[in-house]
Automatic annotation (TrEMBL):
It comes from Athene cunicularia (Burrowing owl). Keywords: Centromere, Chromosome, Kinetochore. PROSITE patterns: PROTEIN_KINASE_DOM, PROTEIN_KINASE_ST. This is Protein kinase domain-containing protein. GO terms for cellular component: kinetochore; nucleus. Pfam families: Pkinase.
Amino acid sequence: KMVTAVSKLSHSSLQGHCICTSEIRKDKCGSSYLYYVMPRYSEIQEYMGVPKGSLLVLRLKYFRNLFLVENPWNKELICKFLSELPKPLHTYANYFEWKSALPFIKLKAELSLGSSSFHVDCLVGEGAFAQVYQASVLDASNPRNNQKVTFKVQKPANPWEFYIATQLVERLNPSIQHLYIHFYSAHFFQNGSILVGELYNYGTLLNAINIYKKLPEKVMPQALAIYFAVKILYMVEELHSCKIIHGDIKPDNFILGERFLDNDTCDIDSLSHGLTLIDLGQSIDMKLFPEGTAFTAKCETSGFQCIEMLTQKPWNYQTDYFGIAATVYCMLFGTYMQVKNDNGIWKPEGAFRRLANADLWKEFFESMLNIPNCHSLPSLGGMRKRLKDLFCKSYAKEIKFLRNRLVVLLIEHKRSRK
Ligand SMILES: Nc1ncnc2c1ncn2[C@@H]1O[C@H](COP(=O)(O)OP(=O)(O)O)[C@@H](O)[C@H]1O
Ligand SMILES: [Mg+2]
């Protein structure tokens, strides 16, 4: 299976290294993804001019058995994975395939999906890929039961997000599954899909951050930012431990549900905080790749480009570390994080001098943004512990008051939008 890739590599530092390409594939747009295997320990300073070379210009150091895949979101690759699943999606009881086109979604009108009828209430959100509507389940036998759900409507159809959700149900401990988006059912049409999911009624973290921007304090109080950071670190930690990379961690992909209103203890260890991670559309299942796979593509369509993408280094879990940093930054400063390289160290722009706990935050961002390589990822649990200690020492007393105030602000905001 040795392909001639080596002979086409111009850089002399590759001489003598055994690199074989297990597969080169092209998608319809003519861009190819390359799958490299580096079976031996190699010290590669730099190489360029790989076949279809514009895709890869890497500066790599000290790789041991690293598998490089260009683009984990490549459409053909995703199709291939879905077609080879040991348990195909159509075998799930809540998976439905229809021969027809995606139904037209009309607001304030009825819509039936299979044997269920819904009333489409309103549009609740829109991302780079989908529109999300609130709908009510119409239950003929019990007209007073108007359970609310969401429709995530996407063109073309997106079975991948549903696949990732099924994997989370299989891999995560049931006691923490409510921390991630739950889909009741998935409907696939010729030209699009509707994922019927749980409704989280109190807006995204981005929405909460923006509410504070309009208030005199301008940013979310630090007690709340630390509280949410501890929860976020835990959610991503658990996701990574079952080999899923979220791939699009940002404030608009965390959402507050009913539980946030009910949870008045605000215990830092509790799992009923009401913050949920949504949008699994860009997630990567590392179980589908060989052990130690890293990627080289940049996310172009949405989301943040992590340091590795900006500097053309391979990455895997780092993209979520960057997303966590960007989300926490947004809570602390109320603006999106911009990064700069300061004498070889990546740092966020921003006046840390005026920030409470500046030293801890500097360390937090430096460890999240300066990851040496795919084999030495910082411990999310360690960082969470440090933030938790700070929370217990300095913020536990004010959290209840601040949470109650945020609840009021969220309810007011919701009313004002109606
Ligand atoms: N379950 C949900 N409950 C309430 N709002 C949601 C839900 N899922 C998504 N949204 C809203 O819709 C937006 C887009 O949904 P998302 O799944 O992130 O789609 P995209 O892949 O297009 O980013 C979110 O940022 C959020 O505002
Ligand atoms: Mg999104």
